[in-house]
Amino acid sequence: MNTSTSSNTQNWPAVRRTLEMILPLADTFAFMFYNRFFEYEPAARSLFKADMSTQRKKVINLLAFALRGLDRPYLIEKELRRLGRHHAQYQISRQQYEHLNEAIIWAFGETLGSNFNEESRQAWHHALNAITTIMLAAAAETKAMPAI
């Protein structure tokens, strides 16, 4: 992630602790996350195949990638930009990203209980805002590119 804007205020140790705790519970986390997201965005369900197990595995893999990449933010940013460009084809709005972020934070809290404290919540809020900014910027660049 663009460390020039986020590293000074980001609590990476809290993010790392949360990721380490969630990985053994990742399937439960992913299930709860998607259920909550679909409560916020019922129409988004149609963007996913009927079998959500594959999508849950993608979320688990993304969490593991994020944990490995915290020490190498340039790798995370490259992947987030790729994802942002990919998601541009679905015309994901800023509000939908915000609902995704809210669902992620909610699922962390539900899955980890008291282990997801206010410090962790704030750290994830900042991290998800940075992620959203990167992905939306990449999506906007994709939309601005002339058709060939």
How much of the residues is beta strand, in percent? under 5%
Question: CATH-wise, what's the superfamily?
Answer: Globins
The pLDDT mean sits at 85
N-to-C series of helices and strands: HHHHHHH
Number of helices: 7
Beginning-to-end CA distance, first to last residue: 30 Å
- The helix/strand class is mainly alpha
Main sheet? none
Instruction: Indicate how many domains the architecture comprises.
Output: 1
Q: Radius of gyration, rounded?
A: 15 Å
Label the overall shape.
Answer: globular
By CATH, the topology is Globin-like
CATH class division: Mainly Alpha
How is this structure best described in words?
The protein has 148 residues and is mainly α. The relative contact order is 0.19. The protein has seven helices and no strands. The chain has a single domain (3-143), classed as Globins (Globin-like, Orthogonal Bundle).
